[in-house]
Amino acid sequence: MAVVSTPPTLERALPVMDNAEVLRIRNDFPVLNQLVNGQPLVYLDSGATSQNPLSVIEAEQEFYEQRNAAVHRGAHHLAVEATEVFEDARQTIADFIGADYAETIWTSNATEGLNLISYALSNAGLWAAQGRGDAGLKELALNPGDEIVVTEMEHHANLIPWQELAFRTGATLRYIPIDDAGSLRMDLADGIIGGRTRVLAFTHASNVLGTINPVAELVGLARKAGALVVLDACQSAPHLPLDVKGLDVDFAVFSGHKMLAPTGIGVLYGKQELLDILPPFLTGGSMITTVTMERAEYLPAPQRFEAGTQRISQAVALAAAANYLTETGLDRIHQWEAGLGQRMVAGLESIPGIRVLGPAAGEERIGLAAFDVEGVHAHDVGQFLDSKGIAVRVGHHCAQPLHRRLGLTATTRASAYLYNTTHDVDQFLDAVAGVRAYFRA
């Protein structure tokens, strides 16, 4: 499959995806063409890690075969070419999320991006106290009495960094609770996000519930309070069109390995005016202007936050993944996956002894479903499905507080992507229907 970007006007003209197209798409993914326990692989764990198309694999391989060199550091031919493809990849990702070039920072994953923001904000207080850096740092510094707000459905990666920021600064961590159905209590949010709120961090789409959160409403409350907005886009960037400027968030993060790219690469978006004044998180080479034995001066973003040798081949591969998704059409992918998600939920709800988390059938969700099987531990469910060649995720999905709120310790999660068919979902549902009988629950 070619990897050139498709203009949005052409994307809208493309037909709705169907099983025949998905089967053609599957041919681009070598790992899907195998047997597991004697059964054709049904991969329903893309919410954890997606698979890689040939174009992405070949992009990384081609870099090592033809252009491998350090970027920004050499005048020789390979170094120049490596720098060009590395920075071209940055522009591709900026375009993919509706950002500007200098607002797009490479990280190892979304977790690193969230820690980067957290530590940069605490360093802002240290710098401001010493009269160092931009005068605007004082406005970004957190102090005792300030508040950080998250939600009860957050992945640990968007919870623990804010717990630690509160610990370092004396700020208070608060959260918007969920109701019994797993939806945010937006009726309480206005009373939680208030005059003391300095940061609001929340997930765009829940990795457990499948819920798509009301970004515009949450951002509106944050703007009213004068708070920064941090968006965890790990479960949205791979699956639906993402326009960070249109959403008016201050920061956003996502990981490449969930959107057809290799592991070890992620992206942090930040508004230019914030990135250029925030203190760096990691320090060393490649992100400085001048160094003496006493102090250093730092480059503006994006290099300001990219110390040391970067994830060059992974960035190139991530750009190839973004092009693959753009060519296929993210609107079409989202529509297809939403249909698969509805098929999963409706099927699961019809099976006795199954409790599905998140929105009920017919309500909006992304293409995943987490569920509990009465009388059978999630790990046993996962092993039973694996015996039939079906790959799912089991455990608390790095969301222990969410599971605890819903009275559970672990669930089984099936998550679809653009290479899954309705037949995959039906095989999964047939297998789940046999779980309780197999374990005599």
TrEMBL record:
Belongs to the class-V pyridoxal-phosphate-dependent aminotransferase family. Csd subfamily. This is Cysteine desulfurase. It catalyses: (sulfur carrier)-H + L-cysteine = (sulfur carrier)-SH + L-alanine. Its cofactor is pyridoxal 5'-phosphate. It comes from Pseudarthrobacter scleromae. Keywords: Pyridoxal phosphate, Transferase. The keyword Nucleotide-binding does not apply. Pfam families: Aminotran_5. Gene3D superfamilies: Aspartate Aminotransferase, domain 1, Type I PLP-dependent aspartate aminotransferase-like (Major domain). InterPro entries: Aminotrans_V_dom, Aminotrans_V_PyrdxlP_BS, Cys_dSase_SufS, PyrdxlP-dep_Trfase, PyrdxlP-dep_Trfase_major, PyrdxlP-dep_Trfase_small.
